[in-house]
Design brief:
- The structure is a single chain.
- By secondary structure, the protein is an alpha+beta fold.
- Helices cover about 70% and strands about 10% of the residues.
- The protein contains ten helices and four strands.
- Helix 3 crosses helix 5.
Amino acid sequence: MPNKFQRWTISGLLSGLMILSMSPAVTAGVSREEKRELKATHKAYQDTAVDELTEAMSLDEALRYGSLKNASLRAAFYRWKASVHDVKQSTSLEDPQVSFKLGIEHVETRLGPQEDAYSVSQHLPFPGKLYIQGKEAVAMSRQKYAEYQMIKLQYFYELKDAYYEYWFLYKNILVTEKNSEFLKRFEGVAQSQFKSGIASNQDLLKAQVELGKLENDILTLNDYRKPITARLNAVLNRDVEMSIGWPEEIDHEVKPLDERLVYEKFHGNNPDLEGAAQRIEETKKKVWLARLDYLPDVNVSFDYISIGNGPVNVPDNGRDAASVMFKVNVPLWYGKQKSQVDEAKALRESAESEHEQLENNLSAKIKMVYFQIENAERQINLYRNALIPKAEQSLNASETAYSGGRVDFLNLIDSQRTLLNFQLSYYKAIRDYEQRLAELEMMVGESLRG
């Protein structure tokens, strides 16, 4: 048996090597807020009792429901969750190897026959390798988190886009029906004046033709509700045939946007950009790992051999034997390591170029979407504050003048058409504003309404 000094020496050597090979603790791949999100989202996914949507669902209600029902979003979440667990694995030592050798034909030694042998070995990577591997795993986990956030933002944009399209259809039908009621009143006036001999039959026919056009538009719009409903149901991961009531009135508010602040938020929050940045970090760690492969790893093993009592009485007869063996790989073929380093550097250059191009593409897209938002904002203010009030005044004046026989029926119809077009254009501008704002929020990574 080894004496006390030998045992302490062996234990100290093994412990020291393990401490050197095991790196400083790697910060977990998630922040405190992300840990809460992991826990809360996982719990929400496990709760199968998701509240069904009300008939006239609000946008917030649809977003809450869809975030728990969308399969792509759920898959991205669990990819992120799996990558978080990979951080711990990447910083852990390999399992130690334990072997046992049973002697069948004993080998005779001076101290007695060798009977059984026991061995414990541990692979110890060069100090720093596990730490860099952990940092690489953290960067990969951050990429999965960014991917999850981007899919969530894209899903919310897709849902908002479909919701606002459905809302615009509803407003389109309401405006067209209201204008149809106007024309029915005009038709009544034309009939009265025709019977009184004030107007010709041509005015009555014009009113009936225009009324027929609007009634056909209403039928077309109501038929269009089916595919729009199917699209919204599909985004919500529901049966496309399920009925959806008309949406609630949206809380529309035109809020001036600071372009400089938008770009600040974009550079700080965009998940695609963050994922590309983490990809650069991952490739940097690959370069470090490739360089560390120039340095050797160590394999330490402790062997213990059981010795039986020999036939001759000698000092230390039957004393067991113990030994420690160190094995070091020799990175002799430097061409292989150099090729690994060059490969990692090429991947880093690729990641940096992708990040640069992605930033330029997204910045240009933000410019276009920002212009579309500003244009929609101008349209909303123009129609709401100027054109629609004037068109309503013009229609009222034309109706009064026609009743008094001062203008012909064509002027009255033109005034009605103008008001209808302005009202539809107004709601279209609101739809465009909300859809483009949702798209901008997707790229910025957060709400722009506070």
